[in-house]
Amino acid sequence: MDLSFGPRYEAFRHELREFIAAHLEQAPRVTESRVLNPRDPQLLAWQRLLVEHGYAGRTIPREYGGYGAAPDMLEARIIAEEFATAGVSPGISGQGIMMLIPTLLEFGTEEQRRRFIAPTLRGELVWCQGYSEPNAGSDLASLKTRAVLDGDEWVINGQKIWTSTAHLADWMFCLVRTEPAAPKHKGISFLLLPMTSPGLEVRPLKTMTGDASFNEVFFTDVRIPADSMVAGRGDGWRVANSLLGHERGMLGNPNVTLARFNALVELLKRETVDGRPLLEQAALRERLLRIQGRMLALRANDLRVLSARLNGSNAALAAMIVKLEGTELRHELERLAIDALGELGVLYRGSPHLREDGLWQQHYMYFLGLIIGGGTSQIQKNIIAERGLGMPREPGLK
Amino acid sequence: MDFGLSSDQVLLHDTLVRLLEDVAPLERVRAYAENDDDGGAEIWQALSEIGVPGLLVDERHGGAGLGVLDAALVAQALGAHVTPAPFVASAVLAPLALRLAGSAEQQAAWLPRLVSGATTVGMALAEHTGAREDTGVTARDGRLVGRALFVQDIDADAFVVAARDRTLHLVPADAAGLTRASLVTIDRTRRWGELVFENTPAEPLAQGDAASTLAALVDHGRVMTAADTLGAAQHMLEAAVAYAGQREQFGRVIASFQAVKHLCAEMAAALEPCHALVWYAAHALDAVPGEAHLYACHAKAHLAEVGTQVAKTATEVHGGMGFTDLLGLHYWFKRIGLNRQTFGSPERAREDAARAQGFA
Ligand SMILES: Cc1cc2nc3c(=O)[nH]c(=O)nc-3n(C[C@H](O)[C@H](O)[C@H](O)COP(=O)(O)OP(=O)(O)OC[C@H]3O[C@@H](n4cnc5c(N)ncnc54)[C@H](O)[C@@H]3O)c2cc1C
């Protein structure tokens, strides 16, 4: 155990603080709805600035457009803390950056890395994730969208659903069945394709938040070059699983929760009921502090997972619980803001007296979506019980 | 830079686990719990032989000079085995009180006896994390008057007493004008009691700032209690998973029922991050002073909540067997239940955390 934030780290923190202070005008705030729009020009400019200074994509090698720093968990923690404390966006965190880049670093060819990583990191290439299908949700490996090799092209037919940001995306990474004769998990491959491909149709689906943030995607004889595959034929499940690890880490990320926690504290200080700050209400404070306790546990857990990854030791169960615990906690955090606001908390976009663009309501509902997406809470519990605790699989499952 | 246990720390924990399996198996714990005259002396003796009482004491006074995280691992192992041992008060808090507030002579007089395990010291601090029934002790001219409730390790040879003005005092158990009485708590694996002071002579621990020493004692007590709960809850989870893997109903092991699996997964999901929380809180007491108090409050409060959840759920997974005295799972349930209330209830600890951040 060595968490000494020695002089080197203090200097790093100091530098970062100065950087944030100097650029505060340009920085999107975490309470602005623009942070959810991957095409927002201010957010994109901010992302480029962060990449240039090594506060985003810090450990991505330079030849792929990153900053090329060695992984360092204290630096990562300091970055997360300082952005959260300042209440400014730590940059873009879409599927491309959080999921595809790590996957390409692990499984991609040199050509794929050089082509995709840098523009993805700068936010110029927006990605969507085409996994789920109407009949393949929790049971993802039963997916049926097919790709057949025809000369030097894959020809894709089928349908994806719940594809977040497909309507905005430039590219999709997706899972398709290429080996129909192989067992369910062995017949899947991982493909990259442009959203402008002829034969590909995106139909937005409006969600409960009122946004059309996910979509149906239809493939009719969509043709892409044979070298659009990441890893080999039939390796898709292995690639997807590694990527799901990144997704689940992202969805429960306690450092993002920290920024929202700080915003919640500010809200409780600023808003009043009967003329008194909400934070003076013991019942609300008790709920706030319970959330903080869980959050601190998850932040310490995050350090443990990161540290284990860096030194090659095992913290499998600690990593496995992050999605479940993190998304449930986040949902509860957003709910507390709504409860604290009372009637003001149920106002939504367009209303007079609305607070923070309706972001609390939006997040409250959206995080219910993230409890479901990326593997539902029930599926997470199956995984924890079976892989984490070694309990038997449900008998009779196909 | 790293966040995890060193190989020495893993070894310390494993050594302790083996020792406890040997000297304090459940039958031994049960004997202690069922007999008030049983002081568990040979258990403390065995722990003393491997240096447990001197873990935190500096080498100058014969101790091992290790850190709070090492102590937390010991507390965790003791909790996991529901071990009757005066560890928290005698090996963590008393040495800390002497280090922060004892004179050189007091340290020289007391620390070696603590290190050898020959002397144990109980803690009368509870008035400062929630005084009940108008209890409290007043110090005047080297004498104490009043009553202290929920004194940790009431069988000890001496006590550290926090007076109303937060000054600390050392009182031998046989001091004139001192009466002690045991309390019957649900957790019979440790002994708590009550002290009545009638003009009792006491030795002040007068160095440094009294209030900050007392605050440090409470913070350390909270982290050790959290670690004890962590160990106890981890044991209960493991016991539940093991039992579910062998108990059959409807022609299959109950571990294959999803309802049972999800109960276990919920326990694991809540409990697993607690390891890191306790590590961080313990390490912070040595190395991250700016965060130590906040984490101590939260470690105590959060482990109280998770411990309670695990204690209930793990018992349920055992069915009727879990409810029996015979199985003995209740010793863990009760240890967790007692830990929840001592050094301040979770609500109290959270309110302390709120105050520390200017929220209240
Ligand atoms: C906001 C949001 C964004 C999303 N974004 C994407 C995306 O970008 N790309 C993408 O590919 N997908 C995306 N998804 C889809 C998501 O991954 C699926 O919704 C999820 O995996 C669940 O599948 P399903 O909707 O078919 O539900 P089902 O699998 O039908 O589940 C319905 C219910 O049954 C339960 N259940 C199912 N199987 C079991 C079991 N074995 N044990 C216990 N309970 C079970 C589930 O927990 C759930 O409660 C998104 C979903 C949401 C909500």
Topology overview:
The complex is a heterodimer of chains A (398) and B (360).
Chain A: H1 7-22, H2 41-53, H3 73-86, H4 95-107, H5 110-121, E1 127-130, E2 146-150, E3 153-164, E4 171-177, E5 188-194, E6 200-205, E7 214-225, E8 229-230, H6 236-251, H7 254-270, E9 272-273, E10 276-277, H8 282-311, H9 316-320, H10 322-341, H11 359-372, H12 377-388
Helix pairs in contact in A: 1-3, 3-7, 4-5, 4-6, 6-10, 7-8, 7-10, 8-10, 10-11
Chain B: H1 7-23, H2 26-34, H3 41-49, H4 68-80, H5 87-101, H6 104-116, E1 121-124, E2 136-140, E3 143-152, E4 158-162, E5 168-172, E6 178-182, E7 192-201, E8 203-205, H7 210-244, E9 248-249, E10 252-253, H8 258-287, H9 289-317, H10 319-323, H11 329-341, H12 346-356
Parallel strand pairs in B: 1-4
Antiparallel strand pairs in B: 2-3, 3-7, 4-5, 5-8, 6-7, 9-10
Helix pairs in contact in B: 1-3, 1-4, 4-5, 4-7, 4-8, 5-6, 5-7, 7-8, 7-9, 7-11, 8-9, 9-11, 9-12
Residues 128-132, 137-138, 162-164, 214, 369-370, 372-376, 378-379, 382 of chain A line the site of flavin-adenine dinucleotide.
